[in-house]
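Format notes (please read before filing issues)

Several people have asked whether sequences and structure tokens are stored in separate files. They are not. Every record keeps both together, in the order shown below: the sequence lines, then the token lines. Line labels are part of the format and must not be stripped during preprocessing.
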Amino acid sequence: MCQHRPECPGACCPDGQAARSIAGYPEQGWSLLCNGIVLFEDTGQILPDGRVIGPQRPAGAVSEVAR
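Then the structure lines:
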């Protein structure tokens, strides 16, 4: 999928979130990465095969909304 050089990490790689954004919708809170991951601002993800990965915030992290 990725045409960048060097190629971005694949969707199944541990660092898959490091791929480049090819479409961003900050007003809706998500971006599409070149490896097919839909990345949400809360760090949740939808992988190209349809699997969902919940938010990966560090324990004890406080969002701006909660303050």
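For reference, the curators noted about this record: The chain has a mean pLDDT of 86. The first strand starts at residue 21 and ends at 25.
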